[in-house]
Structure formats: C-alpha cells, structure tokens
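Weekly sync, protein design subgroup
Attendees: M.S., D.O., the rotation student, P.L. (late)

Item 1: inverse folding check
M.S. brought a backbone from last month's batch and wanted to see whether the design step gives back something sensible before we order anything. D.O. pointed out we never logged the input encoding, so this time it goes straight into the notes. Structure tokens as presented (261 positions):
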C-alpha cells in the first residue's frame, strides 16, 4: 500500500501553520497546498523552507482573504468595496446557492488561478508541485478552470492524479450524519476512524489520507466552518498508533512528487 497524506490550507492562519509545522516534524504529512493569497504568506514561505521533505502545492483559494490579481477584474468573486473574496458562508445565504453554477465563473477563476501560480513561483523560485481545489462547493466551472491553469503551467492537478493512479480517498462519509460541520462530527476520534479505514483498505495499491491539519485560534473560527476538526486531524496525523500501523503493514508514505502527470 502506498499512502498519500494530504493536508490542505497551509498558510490560512498562524494557528493552522503552527499545527502543520508540528505535524511536519512529528507526523506523517507528505503534501500540502499553500494559500498564496493570505496576508501571512511570507511567514508561511519561511516555514516551508524549513521542511524540504514536504511536497508543497497550491490550494487555489477564491473564497477567503484578498485576491492576488486585481479584485476589480473579479466582480463575481470579490467584494468590490473591500477587495476581499466573498466567503462561502455568505454565498450560501443566496437562494440560488446549490442550484446554479454562477458564483465561480471560469474567466475569473482562471485569471486568479494563474496569478496564484505566478505568486508561488515568485516567492519560492519553482513551480508548485500540484494544484488542488479549495471549497469547491460542487462547482464544475471552478474545477475546470483550475484544471486548465494546471495544464497551462504543466502542473499536476490533484483530482486527475487520483483518477490516473486509482487513489482511493479514505473518507468516512457513510458514518457522518447530518451537518458535517456539527460539533459532534468535528470532534470525532479520528485516530480510531483512520485506523479502521486503513485496515479495511489495506489491500488497495494507492490510498489517500485527507486532512485539514492545524491548531485553532479566533481568526480561524471566524473564517472557516472547518475549524475545531483541524485539531483532531492533527492528532491522527501525529498519532503513534497510526505510525505503528503503517510500519507494521509495510505501507509506504508518498507525495505528489512520486506521481507522474
């Protein structure tokens, strides 16, 4: 078994960075996507340079923080008074939410996606190892635009890698009842959940352990519904029990660097 351990949203807040950095040192994360648009991006890059063994890509973010490209060119994505992306929680108040794919138009997402790739290259001197969506909310237009950004720059697009290598994500949707962001669901014992999923799928050639690792602070609570659960993801990603299972089952940790386009 080869296990791709992916943790999203690096650079979101300082608490997320702190939790991830701890997991980079003590845990099993192999790949993470940077939010290049966030105000703390320079701090995030300084942390990244300390962990060359981690595979860094970009989580193309068009729902939190400021845009990298001129917000005036993004009238659908950005609040034209503040220059900030309109958050998903705000979009969900619109009666059209979930019915029409209009909130992430192709041209705006493609423009911003290219700007985020260029920003990553400017900051780090190399292309991101992969591109990943963030808070896609079912938008096929959004996904299509990111895929085309990846093709333009010859970068791996995470969903396409999952398909090419038949990578099975070890989600546990069947056991999540009601709101996935309820307190009950966000504070589950992820160690036991992931151990069960690994055991049930140990004959798979490729699997992916998804996560949103991090510690929690007030800024994160204000900006994302995915907040408390990041601490529980951190727990499983640094768990001695998980690491023992991987060792005892001769499983191999891989990153997007190990996958070819």
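Designed sequence read out in the meeting:
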């Amino acid at each position: 078994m080869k296990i791709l351990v992916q943790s999203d949203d690096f650079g979101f807040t300082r608490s997320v960075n702190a939790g991830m950095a701890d997991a980079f040192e003590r845990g099993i994360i192999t790949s993470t996507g940077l939010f290049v648009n966030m105000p703390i991006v320079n701090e995030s890059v300084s942390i990244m340079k300390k962990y060359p063994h981690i595979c860094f890509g970009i989580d193309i973010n068009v729902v939190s923080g400021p845009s990298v490209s001129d917000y005036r060119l993004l009238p659908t994505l950005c609040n034209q008074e503040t220059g900030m992306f309109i958050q998903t929680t705000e979009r969900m108040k619109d009666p059209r939410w979930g019915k029409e794919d209009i909130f992430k138009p192709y041209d705006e997402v493609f423009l911003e996606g290219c700007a985020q790739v260029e920003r990553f290259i400017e900051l780090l001197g190399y292309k991101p190892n992969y591109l990943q969506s963030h808070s896609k909310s079912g938008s096929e237009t959004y996904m299509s635009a990111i895929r085309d950004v990846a093709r333009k720059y010859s970068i791996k697009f995470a969903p396409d890698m999952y398909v090419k290598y038949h990578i099975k994500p070890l989600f546990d949707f069947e056991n999540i009842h009601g709101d996935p962001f309820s307190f009950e669901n966000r504070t589950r014992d992820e160690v036991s959940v992931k151990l069960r999923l690994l055991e049930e799928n140990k004959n798979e050639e490729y699997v992916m352990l998804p996560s949103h690792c991090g510690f929690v602070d007030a800024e994160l609570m204000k900006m994302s519904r995915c907040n408390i659960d990041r601490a529980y993801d951190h727990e499983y990603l640094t768990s001695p029990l998980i690491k023992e299972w991987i060792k005892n089952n001769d499983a191999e940790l891989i990153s997007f660097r190990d996958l070819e386009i």
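Discussion: The CA atoms of residues 176 and 185 lie 7 Å apart. The chain has a mean pLDDT of 94.
Action: P.L. to compare against the previous round before Friday.
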